[in-house]
Design goal:
This protein folds into 3 domains: 167 residues, Aldehyde Oxidoreductase, domain 4, CATH 3.30.365; 153 residues, Aldehyde Oxidoreductase, domain 4 (2-Layer Sandwich), CATH 3.30.365.10; 322 residues, 2-Layer Sandwich (Aldehyde Oxidoreductase, domain 4), CATH 3.30.365. Helices cover 31% and strands 22% of the residues. The strands form 8 sheets. Strands 9-10-7-18-15-16-17 form a 7-stranded mixed β-sheet. Strand 2, helix 3 and strand 3 form a beta-alpha-beta unit.
Length: 728
């Protein structure tokens, strides 16, 4: 045990409780999860540091993996502090749920669900305002003047007498002032930084000149590199292995069996890969998933249609996620629109595949990598090394994308690295590297999903009954007890359909979800359930509008009015206006519209599409978003552009298929993604708002697919009933 850390008896009891997976009465979850941590914040709290040269450092509890949240988080503090934006820096917070918990994630520390700005809004405004008051009080005392006569502008504290000082000069005195618990926050009308184009990324230079530090850049004395041989089928286990050839590879140090496979440890990446390639592993596949994706999808269709019945058990079976009126009527009636939709498994395809550096056995266990969910990583690591979760030190680096992949309940690749480092021992650093093929074939996927929809309409052509069945795996299966959706309806599977204004405006609704057990590992994927529900709801509505002989924009507007969806109307009208919906599309092009709410934000898109060489080509995309108070308009536009291209890539080309349980794809030669030359021009317009900020990183992804499908429907009259739209 680390001699510098001497746990109390209470620490040991609580630690044993956490590691065993039990609950402890009388302690908050963040408090329990931070036991063992020796990190102490400074005088200005956990989110702020000041230097004598006047530099202000904002400590971010959220990882930066391309979404640009560090700039937005820093701007919130700087606005209330009235700091000089050019002298504001950002630093990644250590792992400590008590200090850096995400209120939208149950108090655990993590980044996801487009929650970084949202959950930090009031917290960081308060931190900045409190520090500002501390400097004002320090100056008032030093200058013997009333605090009311002091102002702070651009990092300079000044008095009407002409006296002034920078933060650095007053830092020592301000640190002695007790931080106010409820400092006065600015009226949004007084904002001079938030909502302006001055809020630009703080990491652009470092990422451009190569000084930004990613896990792959980590190089430590005596560090070893590891790669793992995984079973070709999910659920397969090691039966036996022959490592004789692997050990003959120059640079290979050791071969270890771990719970998820066989790890080759070497002095270099190339040696680790060559050693892994030389392994001969016999796999026990008695409990492996052997069904292919085509067979799984066929079973989903049978379940949705009633041709097959789900297994009878107390947790299985259909679960209602929206119900109104007489359910029998939703399944009856003539002249209904009956349509089904199929969505494939999808890979996250991050630019930087999974990797981690771990040190176990000498001093505290330490991880260095792009940790998206430090608390989960601490808990899972603590269970392996038998330590208090808070004592697991995590240095979070930049990461080259995630889209949900780097956070899961098992901390899969991180715990692999910990297992290997524990085998190596002595605190020697071990870097685990997953190749692109490793992550594509042995990672986690957006679930395979099937929807069956039946809608009857009233005399005006609007939905009168809505019968909806969704069959998909549950992402929340295996979640910790008490997690949302862990025991009841998995909201991640139906978000976007559940609570939709289209269902709210329909008198009779019978919408149910079935989550069959399948051995393929699934995980949230950028915009999660909205990736398929947005397509189903928006493409169905367009088909209904055209059956009723109504303009798709006017048809939506009428339904939104019935449902009281004012924000939907606002973004729809803005997008339609900016796209010129009421005027003809350019020659050879047609337009499609879609609107969807996810992660608290509402996005409308109008896409201009044409068919070229038998395939859809997307040109101009006009986007309108209501995301509450816009912190950084430039970054919001960037997220809409990136989210649109990510969603378009999946809608047009994305598909992970399995043959007899084995993933067919490996790299970008077989897992097709959008090329630069195929990216559309994306225009972004923001609905003015003074409401608290809502999500931006994910809401741009789900809308583009149905907008394109609706344009194709307008052009050909044919609905798009499966993805990808471009078949391999």
């Amino acid at each position: 045990m680390n001699k510098s850390f001497q746990p109390t008896r209470r620490d040991l009891v609580v630690g044993a409780t956490v590691v065993s997976g039990s609950l402890l009465v009388g302690c908050s979850l963040p408090e329990v999860l931070s036991l063992g941590s020796k990190f102490k914040p400074g005088a200005f709290g956990p989110f702020l540091k000041f230097a004598t040269d006047g530099t202000v450092t904002v400590v971010s509890k959220h990882i930066e993996f391309g979404q640009g949240n560090h700039a937005g988080l820093a701007a919130i503090v700087a606005e209330e502090l009235d700091a000089d934006w050019s002298r504001v820096l950002v630093e990644q917070a250590p792992a400590n749920a008590k200090l850096y918990g995400n209120a939208l994630m149950g108090g655990t520390q993590g980044t996801g669900g487009s929650s970084a700005i949202n959950n930090s809004w009031t917290q960081l405004r308060t931190a900045g305002a409190a520090a500002r008051e501390m400097f004002v009080q320090a100056a008032a005392k030093a200058w013997s003047v009333p605090a009311a006569e002091i102002k702070v502008v651009n990092g300079v504290v000044s008095h009407t007498s002409g006296k002034q000082a920078g933060f650095g000069e007053l830092m020592a005195d301000a640190a002695k002032i007790a931080p106010p618990e409820a400092p006065k926050l600015k009226d949004p009308k007084a904002f001079s930084l938030i909502g302006t184009d001055r809020v630009r990324r703080k990491d652009s230079a470092a990422k451009s000149n190569g000084t930004a530090r990613y896990t792959q850049d980590v190089s430590l004395p005596e560090m070893l590199v590891a790669m793992v041989a995984h079973a070709p089928r999910f659920g397969g286990k090691v039966k036996s292995f022959d490592d004789s050839a692997a050990k003959k590879v120059p640079g290979v140090v050791a071969v270890h069996q771990i719970p998820t496979g066989v790890a080759v440890v070497a002095k270099s990446t190339w040696a680790a890969k060559q050693g892994r390639d030389a392994l001969r592993v016999e796999w026990d596949e008695s409990k492996a998933e052997k069904r292919g994706s085509a067979a799984l999808l066929a079973s989903y269709r049978d379940l949705a249609s009633g041709k097959a019945k789900p297994p009878e058990d107390k947790k299985g079976g259909w679960k209602s996620f929206e119900s109104r009126g007489d359910a029998a009527k939703a399944a009856a009636g003539e002249g209904a629109l009956e349509v089904t939709y199929d969505f494939p498994y999808l890979a996250h395809a991050t630019m930087e595949p999974m990797n981690c550096v771990a040190m176990v056995g000498k001093g505290p266990t330490r991880l260095v990598f792009g940790s998206q969910a430090p608390t989960l990583d601490q808990i899972n690591t603590a269970g392996i090394v038998k330590a208090l979760p808070g004592s697991i030190e995590i240095e979070t680096l930049f990461a080259g994308g995630s889209f949900g992949r780097r956070a899961n309940f098992q901390s899969d690749y991180a715990t692999e690295c910990v297992h290997i480092a524990k085998k190596v021992g002595g605190g020697r650093p071990v870097k685990l590297i997953w190749t692109r093929e490793d992550d594509t074939r042995a990672g986690y996927f957006r679930p395979l999903t099937h929807h069956a929809v039946r809608v009857t309409t009233d005399a005006q052509g609007f939905p009168a009954t809505w019968h909806h069945r969704v069959v998909t795996q549950s992402i929340m299966k295996g979640a910790p007890p008490g997690s949302p959706g862990g025991d009841g309806v998995d909201a991640t599977a139906v978000e976007g359909a559940m609570g939709s204004p289209y269902l709210k405006a329909t008198p009779v609704v019978d919408a149910q979800l079935l989550t069959p057990d399948v051995g393929v590992p699934v995980l949230w994927w950028r915009s999660v359930g909205a990736t398929h529900t947005a397509f189903v709801m928006e493409h169905t509505i367009d088909q209904l509008a055209r059956r009723a002989g109504q303009d798709p924009v006017a048809y939506r507007r009428a339904i939104y009015a019935k449902a009281g969806a004012k924000r939907h109307i606002a973004v729809l009208d803005l997008a339609a206006e900016k796209a010129g919906w009421s005027t003809p599309a350019p020659a050879g092009w047609t337009r499609g519209v879609a609107v969807h709410e996810s992660f608290g934000s509402v996005v409308a898109q109008v896409a201009e599409v044409k068919i070229e060489n038998g395939q859809p080509k997307v040109g101009r995309v006009v986007t309108a978003i209501d995301c509450g108070t816009p912190i950084s308009p430039d970054q919001i536009a960037a997220q809409m552009e990136g989210g649109t291209c990510y969603g378009l890539s999946a809608a047009l080309f994305g598909a992970i298929t399995l043959t007899d349980g084995v993933v067919d794809q490996g790299n970008f030669d077989t897992y097709r993604v959008l090329r630069n030359s195929e990216a559309p021009t994306v225009e972004t317009y923001i609905v003015p708002s003074t409401a608290p900020p809502t999500g931006v990183g994910e809401p741009g992804t789900p809308v583009i697919g149905p907008a394109v499908a609706n344009a194709i429907l307008a052009l050909t009259g044919q609905p798009t009933l499966s993805q990808p739209m471009v078949k391999a």
